[in-house]
Automatic annotation (TrEMBL), chain A:
This is Trafficking protein particle complex subunit 6A. One of its GO terms (biological process) is endoplasmic reticulum to Golgi vesicle-mediated transport. It comes from the Eukaryota. It comes from Cervus elaphus hippelaphus (European red deer). Signal peptide: none annotated. The lineage of its organism: Eukaryota, Metazoa, Chordata, Craniata, Vertebrata. Gene3D superfamilies: Trafficking protein particle complex subunit 3. CDD domains: TRAPPC6A_Trs33. Part of the multisubunit transport protein particle (TRAPP) complex. Heterodimer with TRAPPC3. The heterodimer TRAPPC3-TRAPPC6A interacts with TRAPPC2L. Interacts with TRAPPC2L. Keywords: Endoplasmic reticulum, ER-Golgi transport, Golgi apparatus, Phosphoprotein, Transport. GO terms for cellular component: cis-Golgi network; endoplasmic reticulum; trans-Golgi network; TRAPP complex. It is found in: Endoplasmic reticulum; Golgi apparatus, cis-Golgi network.
UniProtKB/TrEMBL annotation, chain B:
Keywords: Endoplasmic reticulum, ER-Golgi transport, Golgi apparatus, Transport. PANTHER family: TRAFFICKING PROTEIN PARTICLE COMPLEX SUBUNIT 3. It comes from the Eukaryota. The keyword Endoplasmic reticulum applies. One of its GO terms (cellular component) is endoplasmic reticulum. This is Trafficking protein particle complex subunit. It comes from Cervus elaphus hippelaphus. CDD domains: TRAPPC3_bet3 (cd14942). One of its GO terms (biological process) is Golgi vesicle transport. Signal peptide: none annotated. Its main location: endoplasmic reticulum. May play a role in vesicular transport from endoplasmic reticulum to Golgi. It holds the Pfam family TRAPP. It is found in: Endoplasmic reticulum; Golgi apparatus, cis-Golgi network.
Length: 159, 154
């Protein structure tokens, strides 16, 4: 069993490495780094989903899948449950974490707010990847109003 | 109850897999970003070093392990306390050099990354990824890092 600190430290290094590669990113530069992190999260989420035992995957409804992410996936990855899950019942879900572990080490308040997106991209991908393996196509974005709380918005893509 | 217990085991397993998978995704990404393997390894070594620096602080804060008095004790703490705490495995310590400044960590079954790098040099002698039966990490003592405490603090 790997200690949670390992993943946290690895994630910090990943963000630093992918950010440092392009010291003077043009208007599109930062976006590329975010996409790379998101892509890595997606692959990891997909692979995690594939390793789940079959009985876990017998979801009847979309909402059950989202509940699984908020409870089981979040506990496995971040050792806590998501704080709230809301939906408009039309394919949009808002998952709120009041104290997101990957943001906790940053000072709370507004000081580092603009640094936050790079610490969320991997997790957005992770959610999208796991959903994809569970048969749900989605778009996932994240927003932060006050550290260390954040919201993930999942919009289901209907075929 | 059994469902609860199952969930617990499941989430522990997932947590371990998350780490391994993330590390894999990182290596894949670096292989795309850098032209040759040497540069990829150099980059991984740098990141591993940075993680090690943070890890030792985390370790000292959480483990209650005091100062090591010699390199043999350091070896014991790394193998029996640190590996156990962070990865749940205990490598065996073998192949001490006659001078007592080098040893090997033998990992039976876990493809590991080179995390621990204090005042020692770590390199892979055998690797399950290269077809060897076990993974062997060779550690060499370089020098003792002296504490530089600010005046008045002990």
């Amino acid at each position: 069993m790997a200690d949670p600190a390992l993943f946290e430290f690895l994630h910090t290094e990943m963000v630093a490495e992918l950010w440092a590669q392009d010291p003077d990113p043009g208007p599109g530069g930062q976006k590329t780094s975010l996409l790379v992190l998101e892509g890595m999260g997606f692959r990891v989420g997909q692979a995690l989903g594939e390793r789940l035992p079959r009985e876990t995957l017998a979801f009847r409804e979309e909402l059950d899948v989202l509940k699984f992410l908020c409870k089981d996936l979040w506990v496995a990855v971040f050792h806590k449950q998501m704080d709230s899950l809301r939906t408009n019942h039309q394919g949009t879900y808002v998952l709120q974490d009041n104290s997101f572990p990957l943001l906790v080490r940053m000072a709370s308040g507004l000081q580092y707010l603009e640094e936050a997106p790079k610490f969320l991209a991997f997790t957005c991908g992770l959610l999208r990847g796991t959903l994809s393996t569970l048969g749900v196509k989605s778009l996932v974005t994240a927003s932060v109003a006050a550290l260390p709380a954040c919201k993930f918005q999942v919009v289901i893509q209907k075929p | 109850m059994s469902r609860q217990a199952n969930r617990g085991t499941e989430s522990k397993k997932m947590s371990s897999e998350l780490f391994t998978l993330t590390y894999g995704a990182l290596v894949t990404q670096l292989c795309k970003d850098y032209e040759n393997d040497e540069d990829v390894n150099k980059q991984l070594d740098k990141m591993g070093y940075n993680i090690g620096v943070r890890l030792i602080e985390d370790f000292l804060a959480r483990s209650n392990v005091g100062r090591c008095h010699d390199f043999r004790e350091t070896a014991d703490v790394i193998a029996k306390v640190a590996f156990k705490m962070y990865l749940g495995i205990t490598p065996s310590i073998t192949n001490w050099s006659p001078a007592g400044d080098e040893f090997s960590l033998i990992l039976e079954n876990n493809p590991l990354v080179d995390f621990v790098q204090m005042a020692v040099e770590a390199k892979f002698v055998q690797d399950t990824l290269k077809g060897d039966g076990v993974t062997e990490i060779r550690m060499r003592f370089i020098r003792r890092i002296e504490d530089n405490l600010p005046a008045g603090e002990e």
